[in-house]
Amino acid sequence: MQPLALTLGEPAGIGPDLALAIWRRRAELDIPPFYIVADANFLGRRAAQLGLRVPMENVAPDRAVATFREALPVVPLTIAVTAEAGHPDRTSAPVAVAAIRRCVADVMAGAAAAVVTNPVAKNVLYNSGFAEPGHTEFLAKLVQEASGQTLRPVMMLWSPELAVVPVTIHLPLKEIFEQLSVGLIVETGRIVAHDLSKRFGFARPRLAIAGLNPHAGEAGTLGEEDRAIVAPAVAALRAQGIDAKGPLPADSMFHQQARSSYDAALCMYHDQALIPIKTLAFDHAVNVTLGLPFVRTSPDHGTAFDIAGKGTADPASLIAALRLAARLAGSTSAAADSPVPTAAS
User: Fold this and answer.
1) 64 with 81: CB under 8 angstroms?
2) Is the separation of the CB atoms in 21 and 132 below 8 Å?
3) Of 32-46, 82-96, 144-158, 297-311, which gets the smallest average pLDDT?
4) Which of 73, 104, 126, 267 could bridge to 35 as Cys pair (CB 3.0-4.6 Å)?
5) How far apart are CA 325 and CA 330, in angstroms?
6) What's the pLDDT score for residue 183?
């Protein structure tokens, strides 16, 4: 059995609090073994602040499973962490980035089963010169550095109630019309279908494709984009053997009966995807990166500086992320770890 590799995330946020609290309840919650890439001295200070007794042991990844029952396994960082709860400092960004790098290196070397990432503060990273938009793009960059393989990762928000994929992510609304294309929707749909099959075990994944405009354009009277972009993309996916339907009016896609008719919804922009899943599964949705040669999950929440160090953060989403990572890694096959075939393959 291989452990999960958990990043520290933003040290001034709630990630450390959650990792410590979850380890203490590991038997009660049936948590799969994990190690955290961190500074044990920092974790000890945070545990004391929270009033938690958490024995820790610095280990190599291959000792994490054996250690997990008696102590929190810590794969040590070479950077000392000085950030206090709620107050990021000059160590925050280097530590967060170093932890991600180490976890990715471990999983690609076969030392860990999957990567689970605690939340980072993007503004803190950007102020330190971090060039990538976020975790997802940075993970793809690390894979390319290690293997030469160019990937386009896809963000999926998953819960038992609903799985959604935003085709465009962090864009102002006015830029979506420029960025959205038939090719982008088709490529996203193919990656989603591939990973739903190879990792999640759906024999023939069903994709529901949301329209961009109200009422999916109302036959062009509310915008031509659904006829000119979304509908041809759906046709192209179906021509490739993917069970896709759309464009569908987004306002009627997410009630219970509609959700039973598909396995994942592809949405055209950020809020179209995230509003329904955060309404249905705010405390236990999981961010899953598709299109990578390994499993990566993350809790679907931020750093919550205002409650860091107070012991009030809800661990449900990180628990779900750890459990889903273990489940997906257990179903990983050679096919799942290979690149998504091109249209010409």
Assistant:
1) no
2) no
3) 144-158
4) 73
5) 8
6) 97
Considering the entire predicted model, what is its pTM? 0.91
d(CA 63, CA 132): 32
Q: How far apart are CA 307 and CA 316, in angstroms?
A: 16
The order of strands in the sheet holding 264-267 is 56-58, 72-76, 34-38, 4-7, 114-116, 296-299, 286-290, 154-158, 163-166, 264-267, 206-210, 243-248
**Token output for 261:** 């008719």
Are the beta carbons of 35 and 5 closer than 8 angstroms? yes
Q: How far apart are CA 229 and CA 220, in angstroms?
A: 12
Domains observed in the chain: 1-155+287-345 (3.40.718.10), 161-280 (3.40.718.10)
Q: How confident is the model at residue 343, as a pLDDT? A: 37
User: What percent of the chain has pLDDT above 70?
Assistant: 96
Predicted pLDDT at 227: 97
